[in-house]
């Protein structure tokens, strides 16, 4: 059974940094692109970042570009999100999600982590 | 690409059908013939789950009472007979371009 287990959330002061992790199991992690999606309290889903299966390309939402960095360690089946210069607007539950594959194309975010809460507050 | 869902709130009666619409500001139909439009359900207190991808492909384990249709800019998610476990917030998302973008969400609740 595919699993994505997240860790690393918590309370952090404005301007500080935090790193989130997403440990993958029961699938060939190095074959899949991975996303980060966040959800502010009481709000909808917001896409944050995407990284190719081999880590060779990364993409970011404008709201986090230049402050967040996505990377992965395929030898350890783990995805990361390094967040810096955090503001209150970054307070949210962060989800990692796998980009599914079918018909030789991408087809949806087919597995999601359990989510981890990041609270930016002094 | 801006995604717009309607309605934003949908009270439903168990056993009755339900329909949610999603419109994109640009076509999400790729030259390969696929519509890069997904539907997700976020049940209360849970992570989102994929229901439908590529406009109409049901994800593994999704009951066949859920169906997706549409092409280009207009899409529909239909639940043929709503069950109590279907309550939650439904989101559409376009997968054609980066940044991925979600609709505002449609809250489905039992009358």
Can you characterise this structure?
The complex is a heterodimer of chains A (122) and B (111). Chain A has no helices and eleven strands. Chain A has strands at residues 3-7, 10-12, 18-25, 34-39, 45-51, 58-60, 68-73, 78-83, 92-102, 105-112, 116-120. In chain A, strands 2, 4, 5, 6, 9, 10 and 11 form a seven-stranded mixed sheet that branches. The model of chain B has no long low-confidence stretch (mean pLDDT 98). Chain B is 0% helix and 49% strand. Chain B has 111 residues and is mainly beta. The A-B interface holds A 35, 37, 44-47, 50, 59, 61-62, 95, 97, 100, 102-103, 105-110, 112-115 and B 32, 34, 36, 38, 40, 42, 47-50, 52-54, 57, 59-60, 89, 91, 93, 95, 98-105.
> Care to count the β-strands of chain A?
11
Helix content of chain B: under 10%
What percentage of amino acids of chain A are in beta strands? over 45%
Given the helix and strand composition of chain B, which structural class is it?
mainly beta
Class by helix and strand content of chain A? mainly beta
Helical residue percent band of chain A: under 10%
Write down the secondary-structure element order of chain B. EEEEEEEEEEE
Largest sheet of chain B: 7 strands, mixed
Oligomer: heterodimer
Low-confidence stretches of chain B: none
List keywords for this structure.
heterodimer, A: mainly beta, 4-stranded antiparallel sheet, 11 strands, B: 111 residues, mainly beta, 7-stranded mixed sheet, 49% strand
List the helices and strands and how they pair.
The complex is a heterodimer of chains A (122) and B (111).
Chain A (H helix, E strand, L loop, with lengths): L2 E5 L2 E3 L5 E8 L8 E6 L5 E7 L6 E3 L7 E6 L4 E6 L8 E11 L2 E8 L3 E5 L2
Chain B lengths: L2 E4 L2 E4 L5 E7 L12 E6 L6 E5 L3 E2 L7 E6 L2 E6 L8 E7 L6 E2 L3 E5 L1
Parallel strand pairs in B: 2-11
Antiparallel strand pairs in B: 1-3, 3-8, 4-5, 4-9, 5-6, 7-8, 9-10, 9-11
């Amino acid at each position: 059974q595919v699993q994505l287990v997240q860790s690393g959330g918590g309370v952090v002061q404005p301007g500080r940094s935090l790193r989130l992790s997403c440990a993958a199991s029961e699938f060939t992690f190095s074959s899949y692109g991975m996303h980060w999606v966040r959800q502010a309290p009481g709000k909808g889903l917001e896409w944050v970042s995407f990284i190719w299966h081999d880590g060779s390309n990364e993409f970011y939402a404008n709201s986090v570009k230049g402050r967040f960095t996505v990377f992965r360690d395929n030898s350890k089946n783990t995805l990361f999100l390094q967040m810096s210069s955090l503001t209150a607007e970054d307070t949210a539950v962060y989800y990692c999600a796998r980009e599914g594959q079918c018909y030789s194309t991408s087809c949806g975010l087919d597995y999601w982590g359990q989510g981890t809460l990041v609270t930016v507050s002094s | 690409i801006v995604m717009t869902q309607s309605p934003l709130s949908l009270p439903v009666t168990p056993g009755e059908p339900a329909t949610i619409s999603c419109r994109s500001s640009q076509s999400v139909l790729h030259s390969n013939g696929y519509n890069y439009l997904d539907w997700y359900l976020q049940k209360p207190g849970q992570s989102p789950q994929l229901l439908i991808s590529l406009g109409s492909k049901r994800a593994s384990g999704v009951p066949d009472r859920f169906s997706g249709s549409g092409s280009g800019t207009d899409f529909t998610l239909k639940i043929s007979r709503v069950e109590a476990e279907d309550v939650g917030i439904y989101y559409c998302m376009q997968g054609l371009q980066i940044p991925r973008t979600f609709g505002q969400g449609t809250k489905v609740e039992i009358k």
